[in-house]
């Protein structure tokens, strides 16, 4: 057995979110998300493709709330580090913008064009760039919050090792890369044991860190739920401020509606973080 009693076939199934949810349901989400994002972009006229690094995909879209010195939410998309573009997830800005929160939707180089070390370095550069430029963009550098979904949940945990980040909400993330190294996803990621270890947030809880709310859909694959629960436990066991929240009835894709909906549970959590109530 390769990992926690699972052989390769079991591990492949344990991390295949598309198969678990069903291809038709996933494609329906995507078909709805794209026009929502396009409509939001047309209405809000964000600053698009701001470069935070030299790479072609080191760029972000900045949606200003119009509120002076507003908090900013940085969102990192998922796709198991090897799929998707920021534009597919523009719709998530609906929720934060309704509460006067700026939103930065971040893109990064995908595997196999980049190794995990490089992807994580890009996300750290995005955080640093935002901290340096938020005042110019109309935000408050002291109020930068980070969230991300799936692979973006993993990268959220990478991002919050910057002590200037004010709070984080990893959504359905991967915090131990060892099972990823051992399953089908590694065909493109090419993780070795050492690279998986040094980029696994559960092995590297920051000595100084912001409050963190680790979230996952309660109806997700058991391994995804376990990863989030284990990371939240490790975070608080290390004396860091945070909590775990499983969102009832949500699968790996529907969970994002709790961020995009102005009345969603993740928006409520974000507002609590901003208010210093977590």
Give a description of the structure.
It is built from 12 helices and 8 strands. By secondary structure, the protein is an alpha/beta fold. The chain has a single domain (8-274), classed as Rossmann fold, CATH 3.40.50.1820. The chain has an 8-stranded mixed sheet with strand order 1-2-4-3-5-6-7-8, with helices on both faces. Helix 4 (94-98) links the parallel strand 3 and strand 4 (102-106). The radius of gyration is 17 Å and the shape is globular. The model has no long low-confidence stretch (mean pLDDT 97).
Question: Which short descriptors sum up this protein?
Answer:
278 residues, alpha/beta, Rossmann fold, eight-stranded mixed β-sheet, 8 strands, globular
- Which class best fits the helix and strand makeup? alpha/beta
Order of strands across the biggest sheet? 1-2-4-3-5-6-7-8
- CATH superfamily, by name, is Alpha/Beta hydrolase fold, catalytic domain
Biggest sheet descriptor: 8 strands, mixed
What average pLDDT do the residues reach?
A: 97
Give the N-terminus to C-terminus distance in angstroms: 40 Å
- Strand percentage: 15-25%
Count of strand segments: 8
- Shape descriptor reads globular
CATH class: Alpha Beta
What Rg, in angstroms, do the CA atoms define?
A: 17 Å
What topology emerges from the helices and strands here?
Layout: H1 8-14, H2 17-21, H3 23-44, E1 47-51, E2 59-63, E3 70-76, H4 94-98, E4 102-106, H5 116-137, E5 139-149, H6 151-159, E6 167-171, H7 178-181, H8 186-189, H9 193-198, E7 212-217, H10 222-237, E8 242-247, H11 257-260, H12 265-274
Helix pairs in contact: 5-6
């Amino acid at each position: 057995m390769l990992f926690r009693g699972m052989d390769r076939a079991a591990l492949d199934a344990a991390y295949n979110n598309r198969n678990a949810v069903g291809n038709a349901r996933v494609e329906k989400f995507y078909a709805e998300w794209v026009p929502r994002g396009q409509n939001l972009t047309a209405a809000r006229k964000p600053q698009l493709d701001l470069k935070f690094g030299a790479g072609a995909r080191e760029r972000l879209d900045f949606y200003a709330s119009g509120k002076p010195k507003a908090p900013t939410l940085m969102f990192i998309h998922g796709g198991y580090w090897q799929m998707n573009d920021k534009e597919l997830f523009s719709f998530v800005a609906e929720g934060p913008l309704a509460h006067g929160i700026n939103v930065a939707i971040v893109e990064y180089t995908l595997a196999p064009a980049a190794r995990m070390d490089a992807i994580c370095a890009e996300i750290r550069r995005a955080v640093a760039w935002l901290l340096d430029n938020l005042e110019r963009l109309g935000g408050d550098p002291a109020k930068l919050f980070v969230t991300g979904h799936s692979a973006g949940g993993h990268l959220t945990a990478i991002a919050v090792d910057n002590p200037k980040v004010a709070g984080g909400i990893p959504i359905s993330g991967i915090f131990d890369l060892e099972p990823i190294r051992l399953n089908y996803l590694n065909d493109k990621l090419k993780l070795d044991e050492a690279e998986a270890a040094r980029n696994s947030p559960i092995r590297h809880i920051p000595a100084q860190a912001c409050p963190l709310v680790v979230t996952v859909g309660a109806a997700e694959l058991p391994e995804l739920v376990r990863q989030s629960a284990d990371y939240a436990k490790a975070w608080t066991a290390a004396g860091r401020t945070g909590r775990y929240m499983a969102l009832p009835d949500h699968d790996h894709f529907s969970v994002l509606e709790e961020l995009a909906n102005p009345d969603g549970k993740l928006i409520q959590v974000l507002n609590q973080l901003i208010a210093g109530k977590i």
